[in-house]
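Hi U.,

Before I forget, here's the chain from the pilot set. I'm dumping it here mostly so it's searchable later in email.
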Amino acid sequence: MGRQAAVQFHFWRDAHRGRAPEKMDEFWDFCPAKPNVRAFAQPLIDGMVAYQPEIDERIARYTENYDLNRISPVDRAVLRLAIFELLHREDIPPVVSINEAIELAKTFGGPDSGRFVNGILDRVKDDLSRPLREAAPAPPGQL
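Structure:
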């Protein structure tokens, strides 16, 4: 549910041309969630915003000859979430991030979204230097 909320936030942000709600409470009013879901989602949302230029550069690199804006907004949000996790959340095993992203893409994207997201994330995974099935301890303040 936390990942779903993070994808919904970035879908909303894309729909508003990169602008986020003035206050996060506006988003949580639109997308109600239990406190534990918010606690998991908020660092994902914040990280995706903080690292979006780097993440979008990765997406562009792995989708050669494919304009970032031509990727469906759902697939783009799912990719942004998963790439953030792969690059910046060592407390989450890469295989978990990839599997969760594929499921989100299949659930909320188009008929080919799962395969498309899997293909891109497989290329990102190949650039990682950490174990794919292991998590490092969570940084202080993150769940």
